[in-house]
Amino acid sequence: MLHATINNQKQNYLLNLLKLVEQNQPIQNLLKQNLDLLDTELIAIFKGITARLFRIEPQKAVNRAKIIAKFSDIIGEFKQGNIKTNIDIAIAGYEIALTAIDYRSQPKFWNKIQQSLVKAYIKQLKISEEIQFENYVLTPKIHLKNKKICPKR
In terms of CB atoms within 10 Å, which end of the chain has fewer, N or C? Predict the structure, then answer.
């Protein structure tokens, strides 16, 4: 029951964010106030909600894809919380938007999303490399702290 409540909370949060983006309202404060809701579980909820919305009202899919892409732009640049997760959410959003359009019907929009997706993948790769580097640098220091290098005199 608790898991369902949390999912409903995240679903409502996500729908509220998308509604604000649609209305050209700023969402940064709402993002800051709910950093705990920006997690990988939100990505699954995001995919589920949008698939359902695209299926129920296909005639609104392109407009919704534009809102999702704009949201992805914002969350991809959001510098608080877990930045890697923010990028992952942005990537999911771009991928979702691409399911609603094709190159022939929306060439400029399709191209913009593709470019944004590539930029997000590059950011994701850089963040992963930074994390790996930090782990590589910090791990020996931790081991050295725990071992006595030379005996005390």
Answer: C
